[in-house]
């Protein structure tokens, strides 16, 4: 794979953070990732463990925007996940995940990291039809998930220092890897109006 990835669905090139060979473009609005074994992005708030080896593709978008994707996860092990990512630097980032929980249930999970990670499980996502969305609203960001009904559930509303890049990540912290497809990727410039209305 080249140093950057051009995807017609987004207006900027995407650069790899780790493992560029683990990504492939599968159409104008689809990218595929192989997470690889023991890959993660996490800074444990209760201990010294820090992980930052998961493959990611990110780009810098200007102004208010929304970036969404349908996420198809071939989960094999606990914490396998397909992720929409905000990345400022190694200590400031946030991720919205479709992740396999310890109970074996696909789950919407969000993590906001400011030095250490604040980790929150939100919604079970067993429908098999999951879309994730990141929106920037001025200095704030919103995470939403659509579980196949067309209603965007607000998962998290927060601020993150700096001007983070935005993109995609795949992880397999406890396993031997997993495949993730990000399909129907959509980018829209402009401010999201319905933060809590499901729009």
Automatic annotation (TrEMBL):
Protein species of origin: Planomonospora alba
Protein name: DUF1349 domain-containing protein
SUPFAM superfamilies: Concanavalin A-like lectins/glucanases
N-terminal signal peptide: none
Pfam families in alphabetical order: DUF1349
InterPro entries attached to this UniProt entry: ConA-like_dom_sf (IPR013320), DUF1349 (IPR009784)
UniProt lineage: Bacteria, Bacillati, Actinomycetota, Actinomycetes, Streptosporangiales
């Amino acid at each position: 794979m080249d140093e950057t990835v051009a995807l017609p669905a987004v207006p900027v090139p995407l650069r790899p953070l780790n493992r560029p060979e683990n990504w492939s473009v599968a159409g104008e609005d689809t990218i595929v990732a192989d997470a690889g074994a023991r890959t993660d992005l996490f800074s444990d708030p209760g201990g010294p463990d820090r992980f930052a080896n998961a493959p990611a593709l990110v780009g810098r978008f200007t102004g208010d925007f929304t970036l969404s994707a349908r996420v198809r996860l071939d989960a094999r092990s606990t914490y396998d996940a397909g992720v929409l990512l905000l990345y400022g630097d190694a200590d400031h980032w946030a991720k919205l995940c479709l992740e396999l929980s310890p109970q074996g249930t696909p789950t919407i999970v969000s993590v906001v990291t400011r030095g250490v990670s604040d980790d929150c499980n939100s919604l079970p996502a067993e429908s098999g039809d999951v879309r994730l969305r990141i929106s920037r609203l001025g200095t704030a960001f919103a995470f939403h998930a659509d579980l196949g009904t067309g209603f965007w559930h607000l998962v998290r509303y927060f601020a993150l220092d700096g001007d983070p890049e935005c993109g995609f990540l795949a992880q397999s912290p406890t396993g031997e890897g997993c495949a993730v497809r990000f399909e129907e990727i959509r980018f829209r410039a402009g401010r999201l109006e319905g933060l809590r209305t499901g729009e």
